[in-house]
Amino acid sequence: MTRVLRSAVKNNRTKENLSSKLSVCNNSKTIKKNSKKKVIANIEESRQDDIWNINSIRYNIFEYMDFEDFLEFNTVCKRWNNITNPNIHKNIKLQRCEKIKKIIHDKRLVKSAKTDAEVEMCIINNSKHAQYIKELNLSENLEPQRAIQLFETFKFIRKLTISGATMSQDQFIRMMIPLTQLQELNLSSVGIKKIVKKKFISEPSLLPQSLTKLALVHTKLYNNPELFIQTINSHTNLIEYKYISYDGANFLDPFFKNYPSLKIFEYGHQKTDYSQSLIKVFKSNAQLKTLKLSFSPSMLNIMVMMNFERQLFQNLQILLR
Question: What CATH number does residue 154 fall under?
Answer without folding.
Answer: 3.80.10.10
